[in-house]
Amino acid sequence: MSGTVRRPPLPGVLEPAGRTIGAEEREAVLRVLDSAVLCSTFGGETRALEAEMEALYGRSAVACSSGTAALHLAVAAVRFEPGDEVITTPISDFGTVAPILAQNGVPVFADVDPTTGNLDPVAVEAAITPRTRAIIAVHLFGAPADIVALRAIADRHDLLLIEDCAQAWLGTTAEGELLGRFGDIACFSLQQYKHITAGDGGLAITADPELADRMRLFMDKGWDRAKGRVHLTLGLNCRMTELIAAVARCQLEKVADVVGRRRARAEQLVAALADLQALGLPAVAGHAWWLFPLIVPGDNRRWAQALAAEGIPAMAGYLDRPLYANPVFAGAPVYGTSRYPLDRDYNAGLCPNAERLIQHTLLVLPWNEAYTKVDVDEIAQALRKVHAGA
Ligand SMILES: *Cc1c(COP(=O)(O)O)cnc(C)c1O
């Protein structure tokens, strides 16, 4: 395609212009360095971050080293038996499923809604067996999963519900209820690409004091430090450091503004494309806009190439393959030479809606709070041009 390449490039998450890291974070890091206490066991930053997360979400918070670690705390807190099953989505970061395997559980993949990529509650309920113990729902790209229906299913079958909110900071349902308050546990990430970042880092929240205790123990070697040098359960070291917590506290103060600006620009783009009948546009209600997803006619890879020629970055399919098509599920050993705990094959065709989204229909645009109205006008123009040629 022979378009004029757009200049300058849009701000992205690997440069200062596309992140909200400034004087506050710099001051916070120096404060911790000057204190010489960098470990959260002995400092106050991480505990203060947890208190601030608690104030934001109205749930107890446990800080840890990554979003994957937060999900690991959550899955460990379910305390299922080896070989038990956890139902989740095939379209997510690998961090959603790695903790299930690490706790010797079997991930069971339910298919997704073909317009949003979020878990289809009907498919989730159909996947329940006597060994199912939990559901992990991901709010994909920041769009609310059907969390009310999933909560009802979990209650009906006596399962724990874990919300993966890594992409959905301050996302809500269409009715305006905060995501992260439906699950027994909800998990957040502070990785470089998320709404707010400390490079890496995670938070798990819960309203249940017992689950909070279990997660806190797993985060710190099963060690209840109030009781002396005693290890009550299996746990790892998933502690957040004080340097990370100090940065995360500054970022948490900015998250509402970040999400608000992403929403304003995303709603501008949705309005600018509303007349393009062939495009599937995301529902704006409650969306946190980690990325901007579209359902496109024709071939999503061709769309991504044509947009790149216009200077607009876009990813076809988000993933290269559904999670279950990765070697660790599709035949490679999990531990040593063993496939344990996996007791089944995960074949192509397992989740047809997810496969079709990834291979054919899903296009995602990077999204950023620093996009201007002019940036969004230009994104809309490029999409209209590619649409006209589709
Ligand atoms: C980023 C992400 C994770 C993992 O978080 P890390 O901090 O990278 O470990 C898990 N789930 C989803 C949906 C994510 O987007």
UniProtKB/TrEMBL annotation:
GO-annotated molecular function: pyridoxal phosphate binding; transaminase activity
Stretch forming the signal peptide: none
GO biological process, one term: polysaccharide biosynthetic process
InterPro entries hit by this protein: DegT/StrS_aminotransferase (IPR000653), PyrdxlP-dep_Trfase (IPR015424), PyrdxlP-dep_Trfase_major (IPR015421), PyrdxlP-dep_Trfase_small (IPR015422)
Gene3D superfamilies, A to Z: Aspartate Aminotransferase, domain 1, Type I PLP-dependent aspartate aminotransferase-like (Major domain)
Cofactor: pyridoxal 5'-phosphate
Record flagged with keyword Nucleotide-binding: no
Superkingdom: Bacteria
Annotated keywords: Pyridoxal phosphate
Active site residues per record: 194
Positions bearing N6-(pyridoxal phosphate)lysine: 194
Keyword Amino-acid biosynthesis on entry: no
Family (UniProt): Belongs to the DegT/DnrJ/EryC1 family.
PANTHER family, sorted: DTDP-4-AMINO-4,6-DIDEOXYGALACTOSE TRANSAMINASE (PTHR30244:SF34), TRANSAMINASE (PTHR30244)
The protein's name in its UniProt record: dTDP-4-amino-4,6-dideoxygalactose transaminase
